[in-house]
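Each letter names a residue; structure tokens follow underneath. Both lines appear below:
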Amino acid sequence: MDFDFDLQALPKYWYAGDAFKSTYMGALSCQFPEGERMFMDSVRDHQDKISDPRLLEQIRGFIKQEAMHGHEHSQFNKFLDTLGYPASKYEALQKKERIWMRKYIPAKHMLAVTCALEHFTAIMAHQVLSNPEATEGMDEQFKELWKWHAMEETEHKAVAFDVYQQAVGSYWIRIFAMINITIMFTARTSLLQMIFLWKDGYFLFP
């Protein structure tokens, strides 16, 4: 799917006219392009350990979908750039981080990180699809983007976990990753949102 955003027609606070909601979703989007590429790398790095034909087919679908998600959120992040937010700068910084992590962190740990983050995205996807209030007031263009992303996340939510179970299997590595990611993902999202709000002249709350 290719979303062609009419940037001139979009309001700055596209989520119900609410600065807090709009900047929160923007902070999430900043992390998606390189995050999706990390997911693809970590699953692909363990593909040779998988013999189940069905799971191999799911891996191919997973990689294709995540590549599309990264592309579309990069387009969304360009819109954030026009608002004066450092979205592309953060994306470039995260790319360097991804390359560094792939070089120095063991592949099994990176796959565990992917499992943890995919768990978060599955929770968010369920909320977007099952709770009408989650998208109420969103600009229609962006509502379609988030609902499309949520549907595909739901489709492949178990792929990274299934690969991990077959290729690695360690409970403790996975739990350690989940604890760390819970802290880091929350902290990064909050920090990015605070930067966006600060750019708009707010301190903590709009």
